[in-house]
Every structure is written in C-alpha cells, then in structure tokens.
Amino acid sequence: MVTTPATPPPWVAFGASVTGPAHAHGESNQDALYLQRRSADPGRLAIAVSDGHGDPRYFRSDRGAQLAVDVATHVADRFADRLEHLPATEDPAAIVSADLLLPITETWTRSVRSDLHSHPFEDAELDNAGIDQSTAYEEPLLAYGATLLLAVVTNTVALAGRLGDGDVVGLNGRAPAEQLFPHDPDLVANTTHSLCEPDAARYFLTRIIRLDDCGPNMFLLASDGYTNSFAEHDWYSTVASDLMSHLERDGHQWVAERLPEWLEESARATGDDVTVCAAYRAGLAPSS
Amino acid sequence: MLQFVDEGNIFKDIDKIEAGKVWREVIEAAVNACDIFITLIDKHWLDGDRLSDPNDLVRQEISFALKRGVRVIPVLVGGAEMPHANALPDQLRALCDRQSFEISDLRWRHDVERLVRQIDVDFTAPKPGPPKTSKRPGPRPARRPLHFIWILDTSGSMAADGKIQALNHAVREAIPQLRSVITEHPNAEMLVRALTFSEGAHWHIETPTPVESLVWEDLVPGGFTDMGQAMRALAAVLRSPPMEPRSLPPALVLVSDGQPTDDFAGGLAELLAEPWAKHAMRLAVAIGKDADREVLRRFIARPDIEPFAAHSPEQLAYMIRFASNVASRQAWEPETADTMSGAEALVPGEDGTTW
C-alpha cells in the first residue's frame, strides 16, 4: 500500500508587546514586533522582534525598530524558498549572508534614510536629546538604533537570527528547550550590537535548523526586557515548557489573549518594554 | 469580501496556490490553519459526478475541514438550495448538519456584509475556557540587580586627623541616600559591597547586601596603600560569572587619601579588561592634599569627569553622598554625570579640621 506523507500542520504566530513603567512619562514603547503572515502558504512564516535602544541619543529608535521588523520579515519571507532549497554544494553561511542578512541591513538603512528625508530631525527632538543639528546628521542612523531577532520557518527547515541582545529559544515538546544563541560576554551593562552600526550584518548570528521529528516546533523571540526579568539562568527552559503545555492544552489563541497580562508582570519587575513573539505548529506533542 | 476582511486572512483555493506547489498539501495546511471554512454552493454544484470522485479537490477540502472540526459555513448563491444528504458522498454528509447562509443576487452587498458581521462576532465573542487570569509561564519575574561597591582606603595615613572617623560617618550618611535612589527606581535591587585596601585588599562587606538591610560597621585603619590589589579583587567579582548578564551597569566609588604602594597599573589593567568594570560608572573621592589625583583619574578613565576633592569631614560626607548618589543613578540617568562639573561649587566650606 502506498501512503502519502502527512502534511505538516501549519505554522501560526502569536505575540505581544507592553510598555515598561520606566517609560511611563510619555515615552513610547521602543520595541516592535511583526507576526502577520506575508505568504498564503501556511507552511511558511517569518516573525521578528526589534528593541529600539531608547537612550536619548537614539531618539527615533521606536521608528527604527518598526522599520526593522517590517524589513526583516519582508526579506525573510522572500528568502524562505531559498532556505528550503539550499544547495548542499554551497556554503549556507555565504548564501544567508548575501541573500538575507545584507539585504536586511541595507534595506533597513535605505528605509531609515528615506524616513529621515520625509521627516527631517525637528528642533524639539534634538533639544530633548541634547544633540545639535550637525552632530545628529553626521551619523543619522544612530537616532534609529535598534536590535533585531528573526525566525523564518518552513515545513522542513527554519532559520533563526539575532543582531544584538534578546533571545531566541527553540523547543520541541520532547526535548529540553534550547537558547539558540549564547550570551555574548562582551555585551554587558545594557550594551548591544545594533542595526545602526557600520557593517551591522557581520554582527548577525544565525542558525539553520532542520525540522525533522526532533526539530523545534516552537521558536520564541524575546526582547531583553523579557529575558532580564528572570533571575534564573535557565528561565527559557521553564518558560518554553510552560508555554508549550498551554499551547497543547489551550491553543495558541488562548495563549495570545493572555500574553500581554503575563508580559506586564515582567515589565513591572524590570521597568523595561517587554516583547515576545513566537512561531508554533501543533503536532509534536511529548511522547507519553 | 475583500472590502471587509484583510486579504492576508483569506485563503482562496483557486488563486493562492503557487506554481509548482503540491495543491493537496497546500490546501490541507490552509484548512488546518483556518478558523472558518466557507464553501460556496450554486445551482450546478451537484452537476456531473465530480463529488463522487474521491480525488476531487472540492470534495477533499470540505471533507478535511469537516473532519478537523473547523466551522464550515455552506453559503448558497444564485438561488441554490442546500443539497440533500443522500445526494452527497458519506464524507460530506455532515455538511447538511451545518446552518447554511444564503446570498441573494438582488441583495448581494447587504448579504455579504451580514455574513462578515456574523463571522466577526464569532471571532470576537468570548470563548468558553479557563478564566482570564492564569499563571504566567516561567519563573517569577524579579528586579534587576544593581551592584554598588565602595572601594575604601584604610591605610595607616587614614588614622590621622580624624579621617577614618569622618569616612565611617560619611558612609553611614550615604546609606539613606542610596535607599532613596531605590525608592525612586523600584525596578532594581541595589546590592552593596565594601572593599578596603591597606596591607592587601579585604572585603569589609563581601556578600552583596540589599541596601535596605545594610548595616555599617566601622573601618579600622593601618598599613600600606595596596590599591592595585583592590583593583584585582574588584576584577575578580566583576567577571561573568559571578556577574549575572541581567545586571544593570555597576557603580564603583573609590576613596583614597594617598598614593598606591603596590602595582596599581597592573591591577587597573586587570580591572578594566573586564567588560563589567569597563562599563561600570566609576567615580573617586580624593581626601586631602596628599591624595594621588592622577591615579584616581586613571581609575575613572573619563576625560570629562574629575575626582572629587574633600578637605574636611563635612566635604567628605557631602562628596561620598554625592558620588554614591550619582554613580548609583547611572543606569537610568546617564546624563547625571554631565552635571557633575559644578558639584564642587556646592561643597560645604572647610569648618575646623582640614586635610
């Protein structure tokens, strides 16, 4: 008898972002996320989280973060087909760099310049940041500085990426969760790599992950506002397994409805903006 | 329908399957992902033997949606009526149990709006399930640690002219100031330590102690000025680990009345090689005219910040309070350092004892 392999369940996305109490004095949330499906193909999804630096020098980082998630998911969604068919004979790192990372950083830079062209720096925002006009225009990207977390998933393979701080966690219900990128010991005390740096693409860390039965069926992107709210070094393990239990029992919409309430608790603890976004597909429940 | 519903939320089987894709897989995945499945039925829906063919696309997708428990809405158009169950293959008979929705050619827009409204209500209506409040995933969120360290000279020269008594008094006076910083910034937990240097370096308060429970015991002077060893002892605790990645930038306040008697340069190099120390807010207070201000400048390592000078007990109390306050606020108010140049103008005058 010939059997047709079952189609993998579709990827779905959920996420939320809450403003930290430290920004209660009229500052906007400096984080951004993108979780809308760009493709009609339910087996393909690109999600992103960006954390604008927020310091007075980065006085348009909320806009920089929004541009980052828009650009990154757009480029990543186009890259998904290429990802599924990476030739074994070529260096995947070179392809990822040329076809994903450089297009993201270059498009972000162009988008920022275009935004600045449409909305030149205003005296009020420069005064507020304590920066004069000429200094601001010497390095105009600085004002828009932001980090980027990215996951693009298909039926058979996923790619996760990180530029700067925050975390990407992969989880399969049958194995311990994995923090896909280790903490960079040089990035301490709120310092981070940023899209606004020259040659930003070279600070991007990426992982390509085959999605066989043992591969992750959830990728969680979390801004540092979330990860810094846990004292435990293995926070990601309990967060991911608790989330997975909810997802399997209650469904992703149930989780999506409660996520803002959960993130508020983290924001209250650290004062920072908190953002979490996840791609998930059902069907890989833990073996009993 | 596209006027009412975002296109990205609609999967239409006749135009959303890309060339080269296996349509069966794409449709199965789309049905799996959907909340509502609409099947349009016109007068010719049952014509021919199409639905008898197990491989027919329409039959397969409806069957899959029914099996998966998706909400299936039969929408009747062009005057069609709901087919009788006997006219359908077994896999599709459950369709007849579903409430149909009629769209009339004469009231097309009105009926479509009505359908969209009904779908919208169903999307937004509260669903039965667990109560809204639920346990958050993961461990309990906690405040971020802010490590504050005093590095204090307890060499023999501090015994002269009441300097050590003044230093003990100054630190005691600074503690309520630190507590008020945390009252203003409740998202951090300030953990205080004190390191002394004389003959070697010694932890006076070794365990990072919450400022709320900090109790100051008097320092006792005697010995050399091994400031280099103090730098090395600091470097050892500002490594990762024991520093937690989630910590706020540490605050370090160095207080001295003399010159190092050991390898200060080597100790400082070891300290500043640690990223946590490099990104710490480092301030210094020079007690009296014999203090080596150049050494303190090298510890601060910022051209825009000078060591503070204290020439009397009142000035020392003020400067330690001021430096501790500014250093501990850096995580939230980095611009505070820019305002420090005028601090010495506010220092109390010399009253009695001078150093």
Please explain how this structure is put together.
By secondary structure, chain A is an alpha+beta fold. Chain A is built from seven helices and ten strands. In chain A, the strands form two sheets. In chain A, strands 1-10-9-6-7 form a five-stranded antiparallel β-sheet. A five-stranded antiparallel β-sheet of chain A has the order 2-3-4-5-8, covered by helices on one side. In chain A, a hairpin with a 3-residue loop joins strand 4 and strand 5. The mean pLDDT of chain A is 90. Chain A has a single domain, classed as Phosphatase 2c, domain 1 (4-Layer Sandwich), CATH 3.60.40. In chain A, helix 1 packs antiparallel against helix 2 and helix 6 packs antiparallel against helix 7. Chain A starts with 11 loop residues before the first strand and ends in an 8-residue tail after the last strand. The radius of gyration of chain A is 19 Å and the shape is globular. Chain B is rod-shaped and about 110 Å long. In chain B, the strands form two sheets. A six-stranded mixed β-sheet of chain B has the order 6-5-4-7-8-9, with helices on both faces. Chain B has a three-stranded parallel β-sheet with strand order 1-2-3. By secondary structure, chain B is of the alpha/beta class. In chain B, 35% of the residues are buried. About 3% of the residues of chain B have low confidence. Chain B has two domains: 117 residues, Rossmann fold; 190 residues, 3-Layer(aba) Sandwich (Rossmann fold), CATH 3.40.50. Chains A and B meet through helix 6 and helix 7 of A and helix 1 of B.
